[in-house]
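Hello,

Our lab assistant flagged a job as stuck in the queue for most of the afternoon. It eventually completed. Since we weren't sure the result was trustworthy after the delay, we are filing this so someone can double-check. Below is the sequence as submitted and the structure that was eventually returned. Let us know if re-running is recommended.
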Amino acid sequence: MNLLLHICCANCAISPIREMGGKGIEVVGYFFNPNIHPYQEYQRRLETLKQYSETVGLKVIYRDEYLLEEFLRNVSHREKERCQYCYSIRLGATAQEARKRGFDQFSTTLLQSKHQDHQQIREIGDRVGKEVGIPFYYEDFRQGWRKGLDVSKAMGLYRQQYCGCIYSEKERFLKEIKMPNSKV
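-- returned structure --
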């Protein structure tokens, strides 16, 4: 079986690629992430994936389009639904590319993160797969998170500190600022 794997970043790809490779699944990566902000972060993740893929011999299809304005237009005033949109746009693009290139299935490295909504990803992946005509491969890759982190550190890969969008970047910094409870 061959599978097109949406890759959000190199670090999140390590565990899923190892797991699927161990099951005899031939994996090709697909980089399409129109949500990442700022542009420098987008470039760092793109370059880190290129570095990783060259090191491990992973074939990757790059859809190198920085579509921040489109992402923002689609989530503006619907910030609570931003992840749903983000999952849909990336999984939809991956499914279409997989079908076009004759892959058996598609999946995503988002399933490696304990910060992502697996149920929502699975529902969107199944829906998109039925619409496009290619099965979505679901596996909970979170158990390999620590191993992937260790491998990425050993390889000296850049490791991002937030999901990627402007909203998650804001949340990251707000969590770092501890606001004392003030009493008047």
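-- support follow-up --
The delay was a queue issue, not a problem with the job. The result is valid. The domain at 2-176 is CATH 3.40.50.620 (Rossmann fold). The beta strands are 2-6, 26-31, 60-62, 105-108.
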